[in-house]
Amino acid sequence: MIEIVSESKCIQCNLCVSVCPTNVFDRVDGNIPVIARQDDCQTCFMCELYCPVDALYVAPDAEASVIAAEDDLESRGLIGSYREKIGWGPGRTPITKHPLMLAGNN
């Protein structure tokens, strides 16, 4: 379930608002998007995937909201981690082309 939109990282591009299939976010003029309908989140990770600056955190448990502090998630490398794991974003190697994955397929 969507848990965090980072105020310090968000660039107000509103891609998360546009790609969310269940309309979880609201646009806010001159500010970051707001998680307006968290219970509608289906944990599809689309918002986290499309965020160009890794400003979102979607907890993998679709059934329960997690009280999470942004600083804690950041220090644990969890904000934007799903996007990183699949290789989306500048300078990232897609997991299917990662040298360790290729070595296992020989």
From TrEMBL:
<keyword id="KW-0004">4Fe-4S</keyword>
<dbReference type="GO" id="GO:0051539">
    <property type="term" value="F:4 iron, 4 sulfur cluster binding"/>
</dbReference>
<keyword id="KW-0408">Iron</keyword>
<feature type="domain" description="4Fe-4S ferredoxin-type">
    <location>
        <begin position="1"/>
        <end position="30"/>
    </location>
</feature>
<dbReference type="Pfam" id="PF14697">
    <property type="entry name" value="Fer4_21"/>
</dbReference>
<dbReference type="GO" id="GO:0046872">
    <property type="term" value="F:metal ion binding"/>
</dbReference>
<keyword id="KW-0411">Iron-sulfur</keyword>
<feature type="domain" description="4Fe-4S ferredoxin-type">
    <location>
        <begin position="31"/>
        <end position="61"/>
    </location>
</feature>
<dbReference type="InterPro" id="IPR050572">
    <property type="entry name" value="Fe-S_Ferredoxin"/>
</dbReference>
<dbReference type="InterPro" id="IPR017896">
    <property type="entry name" value="4Fe4S_Fe-S-bd"/>
</dbReference>
<protein>
    <submittedName>
        <fullName>Ferredoxin family protein</fullName>
    </submittedName>
</protein>
<keyword id="KW-0479">Metal-binding</keyword>
<dbReference type="InterPro" id="IPR017900">
    <property type="entry name" value="4Fe4S_Fe_S_CS"/>
</dbReference>
